[in-house]
């Protein structure tokens, strides 16, 4: 089994990057036959701006641009997608949102056939790992977890048919921070393909 781990953080020594590394190590520790690829969007210079080529693709007037075709091919090689990201303004960093906007394109991730939505990513289980600075009480008071599930789990992945298998919030207020986050990430990696 093969996982595509997408990370969106500008600092290579960040906790987000350390969580990504532990998650990957957990996949390797679980089975010598499982593999992973890390897509570091910022390091790779992914352009998150939805542009004219993307709009032409949405309209069905053109094929995907080379960078988008390459990202879609990476996803097609994967048996699971893992997103690791810091919470920025209660959501994804812009580069990750732009990656989804551009890569999960009409015709590839979903399409409209005679007024019926066709969800095309039912084969792709998704795992989310978000790191945040707010405490759980603040998130609960503002309904963040419900909002996240509505916006991300349902609004993005549900729309495309990709089942969200795990959605993990790693907060600075959690017991054992930050070491506990690294242990949790490794455990997620170890269990990623357990049900297959």
Index terms:
196 residues; Rossmann fold; 7 helices; 7 strands; single chain; two-stranded antiparallel ribbon; 21% strand; alpha/beta
Share in helix:
40-55%
- Please name the CATH architecture: 3-Layer(aba) Sandwich
Category from helices, strands and their pairing: alpha/beta
- What proportion of the residues form beta strands (DSSP E)? 15-25%
Number of domains: 1
Number of strands: 7
How many strands, which pairing sense, and closed or not: the largest β-sheet? Answer: 5 strands, parallel
Q: What is the number of helical segments per DSSP (H or I, 4+ residues)?
A: 7
Summary, kept brief:
The chain is α/β, with parallel strands linked by helices.
Description:
The mean pLDDT is 95. The strands form two sheets. A five-stranded parallel sheet has the order 2-1-3-6-7, with helices on both faces. Strand 4 and strand 5 (116-119) form a beta hairpin. Helix 1 packs parallel to helix 7 (179-191). It has a single domain, classed as Flavodoxin domain (Rossmann fold), CATH 3.40.50. It contains seven helices and seven strands, in the order E-H-E-H-H-E-H-E-E-E-H-H-E-H. The protein is globular and about 50 Å long. With 196 residues, it is α/β, with parallel strands linked by helices. It has helices spanning 15-30, 52-59, 66-76, 94-103, 136-141, 144-160, 179-191; strands spanning 2-7, 35-40, 80-86, 110-113, 116-119, 126-132, 164-171.
């Amino acid at each position: 089994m093969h996982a595509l781990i997408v990370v969106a953080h500008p600092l290579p020594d960040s906790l987000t990057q350390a969580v990504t590394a532990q998650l990957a190590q957990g996949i390797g520790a679980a089975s010598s036959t499982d593999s992973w690829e890390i897509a570091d969007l910022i390091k790779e210079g992914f352009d998150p701006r939805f542009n004219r080529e993307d709009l032409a693709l949405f309209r069905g007037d053109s094929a995907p641009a080379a960078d988008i075709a390459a990202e879609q091919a990476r996803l097609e090689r994967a048996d699971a997608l893992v997103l690791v990201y810091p919470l920025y303004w209660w959501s994804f960093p812009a580069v990750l949102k732009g990656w989804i906007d551009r890569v999960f394109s009409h015709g590839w991730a979903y399409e409209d056939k005679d007024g019926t939505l066709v969800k095309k990513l039912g084969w792709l289980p998704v795992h989310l790992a978000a790191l945040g600075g707010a405490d759980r009480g603040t998130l609960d008071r503002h309904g963040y977890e419900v909002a996240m599930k509505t916006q991300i789990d349902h609004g993005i992945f549900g729309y495309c048919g990709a089942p969200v298998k795990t959605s993990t919030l790693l907060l600075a207020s959690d017991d054992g921070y930050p070491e506990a986050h690294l242990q949790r990430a490794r455990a997620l990696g170890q269990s990623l393909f357990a049900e297959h």
